[in-house]
Every structure is written in structure tokens, then in C-alpha cells.
């Protein structure tokens, strides 16, 4: 299964085959200590939004306090290094998205390798990447966006949550699929700061995880031009896909999931996977995630690892083609 063609139906099929462990497994770890989830982005981005949705129900499942620790910088690398240095005792984990496949595809010397430092626990959710603009830009549709990018190559200023982030590479994949259009990508420390600058009109457009800017679009502060998934977001059926507008057949789904530092005991990883799986099967959580533009997944560590490798291959290919490196 290619990382570029992961669909809602496929994820639903994977989720339906998951199993639930006994309550004893959930309570096996010392619940008096909090579970720290490192979110390697500033507050307000897509990964942080997902973390906040599952924080309370996951805490209830585990009988344990959940702490969200936002550590931004370096396209996720700073937070990753922090989590990698934590004791592998099951009390610190990393909430990663597909940007970590990008950092593996384009490694910086001296930085932490996610492959070498973490074990996949659960692929928790999938989501579209969204192309957004502000109401004063004059861009009304994804076709307008592509036409402007072609008319004056490099003239459109398009925000991304970091150079060589998954949003950056997905943007390049979309521009290639739409006829090799070109924009000027402007890096930010995360989706939250990018969205604020976009609302202010300081950039022309932005590519972020759809959930990060969905509410601002619903409020009229931003315009959602399109999404990169095969299907329109459940809660936003008027937002078209790239494949039905400017790039037939184009699909690139973003994902996020939990990784544990290498050496974390298997019972601790199983306990967390089981609890998170129960949360992702909760109808209230599913509805809330869909309202924000996410789809619950619940894929186990082995399946997560496979998708991770496939995404690395996809991102390495477009980076080589477009001349992108981690030090760009």
C-alpha cells in the first residue's frame, strides 16, 4: 500500500481488525506517575489539536494523568531529541506525524534518527493536508491558486511548518501533479504561528494539516481551497479535493501516531496501544475528530512501521526531484 494512496476506507478496515486487551493490562503500570506526551510543535497546530482531543479520554482509560509537552523547533527535531533522551520506562512518548518520515528521508548530521531511537506504538489518526488562503488574497479556488503559481513562478508566498516538513513535501508533490507549478515556500516553527500570519495577510497561502485551520476556515477567517486526500473531509463536504480539481489521481494523506523511546518495555507499549485504541473507537471521540478533519485509525506498531517506511520513500523521491535538503 503506497503512502500516497492511504484512504479513509482502508484505515477503517485496518481499525476494524484491531483487538482489545484486558483491563488488567491497562492498569499494570504505576498510574500515580503522569504520562508525558511530547508534541514537537508549538500549540495550535494539527498534532497539538489531536493531542488535546484524546488527552482526557486517554487519561480516563489509563487512570493516569496525561501531560502534553509542546516543544517546537527544527521541523520537529528539537522535541524529538528531547523525547529520545527520556528514560525508556513508558512514562514519556512522542506524538509524531509524517514530518518525521520527511526528517528520516532528509537527515541532518548530528540529529536524532527516529528509526534508531523510537519504536512505533500506534498509528492514531489520518487527515488531509489543506491549502488555505485569507479572504483578501483574491484566490477563491484551488484552480486559482495553481493558475497564480504558474503565471508568476515563485511569486506566491506559501507558508509551511518548516523546511522539508511533510507539508512542504506534500505541497511540492501537489504542485508537480498540477503541472509543475512553483511557489515561494516560507517556513514557520509550526502550524499555529503560520495560521496567525496567514489570517493577518502576511503570506498569500499556507499548507497545513487540515485540522489545524479548519475552525478558522469555518469562522470565515480563512478560505480552505482544497485538501490532499481522496475524499472530502466528513465535516467539511464543500471543500474539494485536489484530485477532483487540479490534479486528477493525486492523493497524499498525512498521519500521526505514538512512538516510544527504544527500550520501552513491550507491556508498557501494549498498554498504551490498547488504551488509545479504545479511545479511538469511542463514538464521541470519532465525531469530535471528524469535526476537526481527522479520521481515527488505530493501526498497531507493525503496520505503523510499514507505512512510515513507505512515506520516507515518497518524500525522498520528491525532495531529490525538487532539489530540497534539510539545510535548504
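Sequence proposed for the structure above (328 residues):
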Amino acid at each position: 500500500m503506497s503512502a500516497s494512496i492511504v484512504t479513509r476506507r482502508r484505515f477503517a478496515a485496518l481499525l476494524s481488525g484491531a483487538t482489545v486487551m484486558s483491563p488488567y493490562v491497562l492498569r499494570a503500570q504505576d498510574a500515580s506517575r503522569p504520562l508525558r506526551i511530547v508534541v514537537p510543535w508549538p500549540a495550535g497546530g494539527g498534532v497539538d489539536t489531536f493531542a488535546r482531543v484524546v488527552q482526557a479520554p486517554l487519561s480516563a482509560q489509563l487512570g493516569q494523568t496525561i501531560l502534553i509537552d509542546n516543544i517546537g523547533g527544527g521541523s520537529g527535531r528539537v522535541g524529538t531529541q528531547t523525547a529520545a533522551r527520556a528514560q525508556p520506562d513508558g512514562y514519556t512518548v512522542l506524538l509524531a506525524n509524517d514530518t518525521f518520515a520527511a526528517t528520516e528521508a532528509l537527515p541532518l548530521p548530528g540529529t536524532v534518527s527516529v528509526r534508531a531511537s523510537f519504536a512505533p506504538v500506534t498509528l492514531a489518526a489520518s487527515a488531509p493536508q489543506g491549502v488555505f488562503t485569507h479572504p483578501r488574497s483574491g484566490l477563491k479556488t484551488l484552480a486559482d491558486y495553481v493558475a497564480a503559481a504558474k503565471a508568476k513562478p515563485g511569486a506566491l508566498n506559501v507558508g509551511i511548518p518548516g523546511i522539508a516538513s511533510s507539508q512542504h513535501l506534500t505541497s511540492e508533490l501537489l504542485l508537480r501533479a498540477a503541472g509543475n507549478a512553483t511557489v515561494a515556500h516560507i517556513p514557520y516553527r509550526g502550524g499555529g504561528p503560520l495560521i496567525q500570519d496567514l489570517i493577518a495577510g502576511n503570506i498569500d497561502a499556507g499548507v497545513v494539516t487540515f485540522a489545524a485551520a479548519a475552525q478558522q476556515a469555518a469562522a470565515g477567517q480563512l478560505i480552505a481551497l482544497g485538501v490532499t486526500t481522496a475524499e472530502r473531509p466528513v465535516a467539511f463536504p464543500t471543500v474539494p479535493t485536489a484530485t477532483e480539481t487540479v490534479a486528477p489521481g493525486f492523493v497524499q494523506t498525512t498521519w500521526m501516531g505514538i512512538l516510544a523511546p527504544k527500550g520501552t518495555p513491550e507491556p508498557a507499549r501494549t498498554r498504551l496501544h490498547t488504551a488509545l485504541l479504545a479511545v479511538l473507537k469511542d463514538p464521541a471521540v470519532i465525531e469530535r475528530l471528524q469535526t476537526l478533519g481527522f479520521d481515527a485509525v488505530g493501526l498497531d506498531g507493525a503496520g505503523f512501521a510499514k507505512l512510515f517506511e513507505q512515506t520516507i520513500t515518497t518524500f525522498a523521491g520528491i525532495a531529490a526531484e525538487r532539489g530540497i535538503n534539510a539545510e535548504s
